[in-house]
């Protein structure tokens, strides 16, 4: 055996690896990396390696088996202390392409917004006491002034089931044995979020965790679907997203309910006013950013119209027509159309084929373009109705696929995504908490990326998961792969703009602004003080 043989083998090996990696989308531009980008990428890999032992090999109270990419809800407190996470909070993330608006604002902030509104009332199906508190959910609703109620508090034994109590009063009178006002807040927050015990013990199957997950929306809708709160909620979503480095969002809004509650406490505010308020807040935030000299950090936000897969195919026709009317009035704000909810148990796309084809035909007649951006394959199923949604999503020409968790079981569909440029909106933390994967190393994301399919990382329902912004999702992906470094994350961020529904000029502008921020960011990372790297 000569040295030549080994060198020859090494060369063959390098070419082999290169050939494999060349399939990835992020490879295309790999030859054009600046020295500073390469240095920043190296710094990030160093910090990751250091923290793999200093953090993830260490002992932690309450964490039996720490490892990079482990269950998010257990790891969260550790993650926020890492250098890697702190750096990622500064990264320009590009676009947020998959998030459900009603789960995008920190639950503590939502609680504060609600407490400012005397119209908001709360009820429970039984008096709240030490026995009932864990299994009883608060229900919220805005009431008209003549129905404002000051009856017995929720923890008063004389409380009559399902009676509305003013939220402020319910909070102030919450029994001291249950923690008083703070106990009330804790009870509400527990109803709006998923805790580690639920995700990893009591509700540790996809079906069970979805039941808990769905209940969070039933609680939050009474607080959010209220005209005086709605704009403030949207503002908070936009401002916190911008602060996390997100410069554009396509957010899914649930239009299942035909009205929200107005300031007068009556359920009489139609969809067009929801959108009008949305557009107004987007413009106000843009103006505020301009005043602060930060206009380059925010290019806007648009809406993906959604309704839930519980409706009948006949009912869907009402929603598609509604979507068309809204698109005609707000062409710049309506970005696409989707159907949401647990694909494993609700109606599959094929059940709606008639109204969906009709929707496309109507758009053609009217000269409109409302792309489908379908949730599909958010499942562990193989050949189940949720898995089969992928066939229909692609046949119907979906612009992107929401989740596509089961896509990797279908080589033909992956080929179509690659060749037609159908992006997958991957929601790593959501998939893990909703029990599709037990941790990030088991997530199929690398399979999707290695097959050359464009990917955007998305947060899905950050308020429910406690994963506000995109930094947490980027973190979980970064620590769970040796291939993925800063450059790969940057490519996903850039692609999120590239595969958005912005028009050509909008995209060019957003990408140019992103590139400017990216250049600045990588420079900061590249100049990171090595000794600082070690101090955690
Ligand atoms: O990951 C998801 N997959 C499918 N549907 C979802 C997901 N997250 C939230 N929703 C749905 O969106 C509605 C709120 O806008 C909720 O009803 C919820 O079922």
From TrEMBL:
InterPro entries: A_deaminase_dom, ADGF, Ado/ade_deaminase, Metal_Hydrolase. Its EC number is 3.5.4.4. SUPFAM superfamilies: Metallo-dependent hydrolases. It comes from the Eukaryota. Residues 207-509 form the Adenosine deaminase domain. Coiled coil: none annotated. Its cofactor is Zn(2+). It catalyses: adenosine + H2O + H(+) = inosine + NH4(+). The keyword Secreted applies. It is an enzyme of class 3 (hydrolase). It is found in: Secreted. Keywords: Hydrolase, Metal-binding, Secreted, Signal. GO terms for molecular function: adenosine deaminase activity; metal ion binding. Belongs to the metallo-dependent hydrolases superfamily. Adenosine and AMP deaminases family. ADGF subfamily. This is adenosine deaminase.
């Amino acid at each position: 055996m000569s040295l030549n043989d080994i060198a020859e083998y090494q060369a063959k090996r390098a070419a082999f690896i290169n050939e494999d990696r060349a399939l990835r989308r992020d490879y295309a531009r790999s030859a054009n990396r600046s020295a500073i980008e390469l240095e920043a990428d190296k710094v990030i890999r160093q910090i990751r390696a250091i923290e793999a032992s200093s953090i993830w090999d260490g002992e932690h109270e309450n964490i039996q088996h720490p490892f990079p990419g482990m269950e998010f809800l257990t790891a969260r407190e550790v993650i926020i202390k890492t250098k890697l996470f702190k750096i990622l909070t500064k990264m320009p993330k590009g676009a947020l392409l998959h998030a459900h608006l009603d789960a995008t604002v920190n639950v503590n902030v939502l609680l504060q917004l609600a407490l400012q509104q005397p119209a908001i009332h709360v009820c429970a199906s039984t008096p709240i006491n030490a026995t009932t508190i864990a299994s009883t959910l608060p229900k919220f609703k805005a009431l008209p002034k003549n129905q404002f109620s000051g009856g017995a508090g929720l923890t008063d034994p004389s409380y009559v089931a399902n009676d509305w109590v003013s939220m402020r009063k319910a909070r102030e009178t919450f029994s001291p044995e249950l923690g008083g006002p703070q106990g009330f807040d804790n009870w509400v927050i527990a109803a709006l979020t998923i805790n580690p015990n639920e995700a990893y013990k009591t509700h540790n199957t996809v079906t069970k965790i979805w039941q808990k997950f769905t209940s969070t929306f039933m609680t939050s809708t009474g607080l959010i679907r209220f005209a005086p709160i709605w704009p403030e909620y949207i503002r908070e979503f936009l401002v916190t997203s911008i602060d996390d480095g997100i410069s554009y969002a396509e957010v899914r809004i649930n239009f299942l309910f035909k009205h929200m509650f107005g300031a007068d406490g009556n359920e009489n505010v139609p969809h067009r006013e929801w959108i009008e308020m949305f557009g107004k807040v987007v413009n106000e935030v843009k103006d505020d950013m301009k005043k602060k000299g930060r206009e380059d950090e925010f290019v806007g936000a648009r809406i993906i119209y959604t309704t839930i897969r519980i409706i009948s195919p006949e009912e869907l026709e009402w929603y598609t027509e509604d979507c068309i009317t809204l698109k005609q009035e707000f062409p710049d704000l309506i970005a696409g159309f989707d159907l949401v909810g647990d694909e494993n148990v609700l109606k599959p796309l094929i059940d709606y084929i008639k109204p969906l084809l009709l929707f496309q035909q109507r758009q053609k007649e009217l000269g409109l373009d409302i792309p489908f951006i379908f949730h599909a394959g958010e499942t562990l199923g193989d050949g189940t109705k949720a898995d089969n949604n992928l066939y229909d999503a692609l046949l119907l020409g979906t612009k992107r696929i929401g989740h596509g968790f089961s896509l990797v079981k279908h080589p033909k569909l992956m080929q179509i995504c690659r060749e037609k440029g159908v992006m997958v909106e991957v929601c790593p933390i959501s998939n893990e908490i909703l029990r599709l994967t037990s941790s990030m190393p088991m997530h199929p994301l690398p399979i999707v990326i290695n097959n050359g399919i464009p990917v955007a990382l998305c947060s899905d329902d950050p308020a429910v998961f406690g994963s506000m912004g995109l930094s947490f999702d980027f973190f979980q992906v970064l620590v769970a792969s040796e291939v993925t470094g800063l450059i790969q994350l940057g490519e996903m961020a850039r692609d999120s703009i590239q595969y958005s529904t912005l028009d050509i000029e909008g995209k060019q502008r957003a990408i140019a602004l992103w590139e400017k921020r990216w250049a600045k960011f990588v420079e900061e990372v590249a100049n990171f003080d090595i000794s600082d790297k070690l101090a955690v």
